[in-house]
Design goal:
The complex is a heterodimer. Chain A is mainly α. Chain A folds into two domains: 10-45 and 270-344, no CATH class; 93-267, ABC transporter involved in vitamin B12 uptake, BtuC (Orthogonal Bundle). Chain A has helices at 2-33, 41-48, 54-89, 101-115, 130-149, 156-180, 183-194, 202-225, 233-238, 244-265, 271-283, 287-313, 320-338. In chain A, helix 1 runs parallel beside helix 12, helix 3 crosses helix 12 (287-313) and helix 5 (130-149) runs antiparallel to helix 10 (244-265). The two termini of chain A are 29 Å apart. Chain B is an all-alpha fold. Chain B has a single domain, classed as ABC transporter involved in vitamin B12 uptake, BtuC, CATH 1.10.3470. Helix content of chain B is 77%, strand content 0%. Chain B is built from 15 helices and no strands. Chain B is globular and about 65 Å long. Classes of the chains: A mainly alpha, B mainly alpha. At the A-B interface, helix 6, helix 7 and helix 13 of A face helix 7, helix 8 and helix 15 of B.
Chain lengths: 344, 344
């Protein structure tokens, strides 16, 4: 029976991935096409391929393409982080947002902005170090969650509760850091915390890409070693999978992925929760298919959320993270209601 | 039987104080509260002497010191204890209702619901009157509490952890909607940001006059429901056996909690985790009987809020921190401690 299912999934997965990929591409093109002025899809394609007139080139290459690109990278990165966390904890409720990772990254970024700005509000160092600050904060967040939960860390639900507590403390610290800063920094930080993909430039995308790629490669490698979801913890341990050190590595990897993803766009919530779950519905349990599908779905979600805020709230730039939260929170509640075995 | 259970549980935690020592406890708390309020009036950016404060209060002479004391210091010395007491009493009730020692108006999302209601009312519908805002906040808290408990019940029983997860998710949802509204009203961002962090600064005395009655009404209702709450804390069957009308008591508590939380949020913004921390201290002092717990919690909550407010003036001197950030950090630490002891 399970053999049959797995053959079916392997047959289904490539098609599903191809479909997701094309949806993502189409959505990305529409993301570029839509804005204060509409640029037809075929012209978008031709501009990207190097043709087109000057103003269109400017709009497409400097304004719209960057936000679509960063949305794809950040959404995908967070989704993969969520995928790893859900696999390793065997719990569909785990996500970077509730394990203190995103709030930790937020604290890292706010401290970075506060400490390394001079009186005239400009950074004294390269913005390229922002992902590192985010990463340090994220690792601090998830590290504290694990350190404090101690033995209870075996239970995913307990971890979530510790994550909530740590996140609350970090949120308060971020709030203080924002209030003692000048107004400019406050509004910057407020936007960052809500998660927004506008005002991104190519050098930031380059940095994100350079840091994200090795982490994603590691995730693909680690996925191979991931114990199957239907294996319980004891038997996984007995055949040499799911060792504590491996767990720690996966959590660190997920923290790193999240931090790099959110470093420039900010705390976009719930994608790391929703994408892996939907991925399982689409491609089944195959671990690599699930990982790629998570990435694609995460990218699709953030590009889509950005499109939604641009359509609904234009010309005001509402952070895309608000949309993912408005959609993701009910989804989380639905998950809570539809599954009974979370009270570990 | 019920009394035995109660007695046993409470004598495990602390001996039930006799009425004389109970009087001592209340008296001690009251004196501490008065001392804290005097401290709140006299210390801050400028430190005034006691005679100066008395002169300002009872023989106003128009001097700078007198003006600062009566128009800036006095309102916060009165609003802070009202808010602290309100949130603490609400915390006692929800911890019993949810049978969960980490339940509080914050972890259940009631603060967020009340804040959302206030932001929507003031930014979208232009509600400006203080009574109107208090009512709106209470309504927001009431709706949120009903939603949280309804979803939790729908998810298959009111398991403590589930209630908290649902509450936190709904709080996240509310914050996102607040964010959307605020990004569309840039002008209000700075103002509301400070209010949303929770603070007693720059509140007019009229605020205490419009919020105070709500707090008193909520507290009175809570005291009326103290006996049935005693019965409710074991389990539903026991309570039913004792002839407690469960639904009626729950609805009464929801109304009381909503009045208390709503008025507190309308006066100070969401001051985090007061309702989580204080009930624990109250139980340690006076045991599990709700009549005593509510009075003690009200006094301790008032002291806690006043002292936190005084501390807020100094932690990032010379700038004021939002008191909500202080209580959030302290509350987060207490929450971690409770989780570590598996108190919840």
């Amino acid at each position: 029976m399970s053999g049959l299912t797995s053959t079916l999934t392997t047959a289904r997965a490539p098609i599903a991935l191809a479909v997701l990929g094309s949806i993502g591409l189409l959505l990305a093109l529409s993301g570029v096409a839509f804005g204060s002025s509409w640029i037809p899809l075929d012209q978008v394609a031709s501009v990207i391929l190097g043709a087109g007139e000057k103003t269109q080139k400017l709009i497409v290459l400097q304004l719209r393409l960057p936000r679509v690109a960063i949305a794809a990278l950040a959404g995908g990165g967070m989704a993969v982080a969520g995928f790893l966390l859900q696999k390793i904890t065997r719990n569909a409720l785990a996500s970077p947002g509730v394990l203190g990772v995103i709030d930790g990254a937020a604290l890292g970024v706010v401290v970075f902005l506060a400490v390394l700005s001079n009186e005239s509000n400009t950074l004294v160092t390269s913005i390229g170090y922002q992902p590192l600050a985010a990463m340090a904060g994220a690792v601090l967040g998830i590290g504290l969650v694990f350190l404090l939960s101690g033995r209870q860390s075996a239970s995913a639900v307990r971890l979530l509760l510790f994550g909530i507590a740590i996140a609350a403390v970090f949120k308060a610290l971020v709030m203080v850091m924002m209030l003692i800063g000048p107004i400019y920094r406050t509004s910057q930080a407020a936007r960052w915390i809500a998660g927004a993909v506008n005002e991104i430039n190519w050098s930031e995308i380059q940095i994100t890409l350079l840091m994200l790629l090795p982490l994603l490669a590691l995730a693909v490698l680690a996925a191979r070693k991931m114990p199957p979801a239907d294996l319980d913890e004891v038997s996984a341990r007995s055949i040499g999978l799911d060792l504590p050190i491996f767990r720690v590595l996966i959590f660190a990897l997920a923290a790193g992925l999240t931090a790099v993803s959110v470093a420039f766009v900010g705390g976009v919530g719930f994608i790391g929760l929703m994408a892996p779950h939907l991925a399982r519905l689409v491609v089944g349990r195959n671990i690599h298919a699930g990982l790629f599908a998570s990435f694609l779905l995460g990218a699709i979600m953030l590009i889509g959320a950005d499109l939604i805020v641009r359509v609904l709230f234009s010309p005001v730039e509402v952070p895309a993270g608000t949309v993912t939260a408005v959609i993701g929170a009910p989804y989380f509640l639905f998950l809570l209601m539809s599954r009974q075995r979370h009270d570990g | 039987m019920q009394a035995n259970v109660l007695h046993e549980v409470s004598s495990n935690a602390t001996p039930l104080p006799r009425s004389t020592s109970l009087g001592l406890v209340y008296g001690g708390l009251l004196i501490t509260l008065v001392a804290a309020m005097v401290l709140s009036v006299t210390v801050g950016y400028r430190i005034y002497s006691l005679p100066q404060a008395f002169a300002a209060l009872f023989a106003f002479d128009g001097s700078e010191a007198a003006t600062v004391i009566t128009s800036l210091r006095l309102p916060r010395a009165i609003i802070a204890p009202l808010v602290g007491a309100g949130l603490a009493i609400a915390g006692v009730q929800v911890q019993t209702l949810a049978r969960n020692r980490i339940a509080s108006p914050d972890t259940l999302g009631l603060n967020a619901g009340a804040s959302l209601a206030v932001v929507v009312a003031s930014a979208v519908f232009g509600v400006g009157s203080l009574i109107g805002l208090s009512l709106t906040a209470a309504l927001g808290a009431l709706v949120t509490s009903l939603v949280v408990f309804a979803i939790a019940a729908g998810a298959g029983g009111l398991s403590p952890i589930r209630i908290v997860l649902i509450g936190v998710t709904i709080a996240g949802l509310g914050q996102s909607i607040v964010q959307i509204i605020l990004t569309n009203n840039e002008a209000q961002l700075q103002n509301l940001l400070f209010w949303l962090a929770g603070s007693f600064v720059d509140r007019p005395m009229t605020l205490a006059l419009s919020g105070g009655p709500f707090i008193l009404a909520g507290a009175a209702l809570a005291l009326l429901l103290a006996r049935p709450l005693d019965a409710l804390q074991a389990d539903d069957e026991t309570a039913k056996g004792l002839g407690v009308p469960l639904t009626l008591v729950r609805i009464g508590c929801f109304v009381s909690v909503s009045l208390l939380t709503g008025a507190s949020v309308a006066m100070a913004g969401p001051v985090s985790f007061v309702g989580l921390v204080v009930p624990h201290a109250a139980r340690r002092l006076v045991g599990l009987r709700h009549g005593r717990q509510i009075i003690a919690a009200a006094l301790i909550g008032a002291i806690y809020a006043v002292l936190a407010d005084v501390a807020a003036r100094f932690v990032i001197f010379p700038v004021e921190a939002p008191v909500g950030a202080i209580t959030a950090v302290l509350g987060g630490i207490v929450l971690v401690a409770l989780l570590r002891r598996r108190a919840a």
